[in-house]
Amino acid sequence: MEKKCSILIAEPWDFDSPDGENIIRGKIIKIISAESLIFKSDHKLSFKNYTGDLFVLHPRFKDCDFSKFSNDIIKKGLAGINGGIIIEKDIDKLSGYDKNTLDNISIFAFIGNICE
């Protein structure tokens, strides 16, 4: 399952990438669960002394999961997420991981909204 999308970055507020100010373009490459997606950016990006193009995305708000994000919410860029840069490089291992394990192999990087 691959779906092209963008992430509009809210924090860090001064984020800049090859895609432009406060934006990361790429695709969702794996759905781990209703609480976790793996996103691959079009470019390698640096956060907190880590560089990579794989990110774990979680819904930003506690009582929400990705199944509750309607297509309309995503199209409007209103689906709030937290993102962490993944430091595990073997992506084949990622599909067997749960949310806690994904959090342990990633470093919190940004707050934003996912949109098509």
Q: Which shape, going by the Cα principal axes?
A: globular
Number of strands: 8
Strand order of the largest sheet: 1-4-5-6-7-8
How much helical structure, as a percent, in the residues?
under 10%
Measured between the Cα atoms of the first and last residue, the distance is 15 Å
What is the number of helices? 2
Mean pLDDT: 82
Q: For the CA atoms, what is the radius of gyration?
A: 13 Å
Unreliable segments (pLDDT under 50, ≥5 consecutive)?
Answer: none
The SSE string, one letter per element, is: EEEEEEHEHE
Report the sheet with the most strands, covering strand number, pairing sense and barrel closure.
6 strands, antiparallel, barrel
Percent of residues in beta strands: over 45%
Structural class: mainly beta
Q: What is the gist of this entry?
A:
Helices cover 9% and strands 55% of the residues. The chain is mostly beta strands.
List the helices and strands and how they pair.
Elements: E1 3-11, E2 16-17, E3 20-21, E4 23-33, E5 36-47, E6 50-59, H1 71-75, E7 79-86, H2 99-104, E8 106-115
Antiparallel strand pairs: 1-4, 1-8, 2-3, 4-5, 5-6, 6-7, 7-8
